[in-house]
Amino acid sequence: MNEPALAARTLVVLLGDWRGSGTTYRNLADRIRLLILDGRIPSGTRLPAERELAERLGLSRATISSAYRDLRERAVLHSVRGSGSVARINPASLAREPGGRPVLLDLARASLPAAPQLPEAALAAAEALPRYLDADSDPVGLPELRAAIAARYSAQGLPTRPDQIMVTLGAQHAIGLVTRLFLARGDRALIEHPSYPYAHDTMRALGARVVAVPVTAETGWDADELIDTVERTSPALAYLMPDFHNPTGASMPRDLRERLCRVAAKQGTVLLIDETTADLDIDRPGPMRPFAVDNRSGAEIITVGTVGKTLWAGIRLGWIRAEAATITRLVASRTRSDLGTSILEQLTVLEAFKAMPQILELRQRQLRATRDVTVSYLSSRVPEWQIPHVHGGLALWVNLGTPVSSRLTLTARQHGLLLSAGPRFGADGAFERFLRIPITGPSEVTETALAALVDSWEELRAAPDLELPPPGRY
Ligand SMILES: Cc1ncc(COP(=O)(O)O)c(C=O)c1O
Fold this sequence. Notes:
This protein is an alpha/beta fold.
């Protein structure tokens, strides 16, 4: 029984408001299935014992048994005598929903297709490789690539030396390295709410006490609340996405950046700034301005970046920008988990950097086309939803007007459409009113997926237990 166990009380919080019009066991199974499919219950987690969950939910043990049986039949749960019931997705089961159509459309992930310049960059990297064959594994990054990343920051108004850069296996790896160095069990960590879920998971796994501050698509950060929270709680680390925040698309105004740096310097809070989405500009007023430019107070700022959204998510390459002494500490701690980034991939990125202006222009065109199609389609077909206007980023954080995001996600699977329900981006079951709709896919494919989304919404509206106002009347 080595699997991590999920306490019954935690599962009850994750379940949120799960009851609906169907049979109780089926509603419960549906909601647990969604939690497993979207990763809120990680694969390999042991679910609570039937009796314990029955007590917590005030249901009979037979109902829980039926729900678990249903989950086993639908290939997301595995039961072994003596080990209990463990969440485990059978990949073959994902291709087709029971009684439904094959799953074809994906509005769950927000990643762009590989840049067309990539194969040429990879070929040039392969040609350059013989010059590097004497090199050993590389925990800090090739000098040429560190210099190129530093030069990009300098050109954006943030003077940076190569010894302030460390190359990583993507931004998520960078977040893991920084949080492991700066957060100990019981430390406070500030995150935005909603936020990028894997960063949140990383902090929770380290045993940090998470303090959440709200961000909305319409008004962004509540400036006073953010500053007060840092002042009051003095978190060891604050994880923020100031440019095209994922999932809301909000960008932080300059005066708030300055205030935040000031309060962080005063309270000794390290700011972990995730600029993964910062290059995804559609019509941002003004050029990209790295967050650390506005640090006039001596706050410790650690910035992470990646080529995952510009070049390709399949190239596992990102970086950390920090003070040189912090980079030295990060490099020293890295060898506990990995020994460095592939040299061939570093050379590929170095080559691809030469075409970065064209790649960013292409991304801008792709994102603009899909954003515009999505906004105009949804505004005309589902006027009751609140659709934000974003200037860039990965997605639209749509307010459904009513807390049914998980139910909509389950209904959509019957229409061959994958969605990420709002609570995936929050803690403790929050954001049932919201759905993240990516703008990263090709606009034609997105239009087909949106048609399936609208069909799913109409089916859900017809559910007898849902009392939604008529279309267009929120
Ligand atoms: C905000 C944010 N940070 C980090 C990452 C992870 O990036 P990478 O693929 O470089 O690990 C993502 C990926 O979606 C993201 O959205």
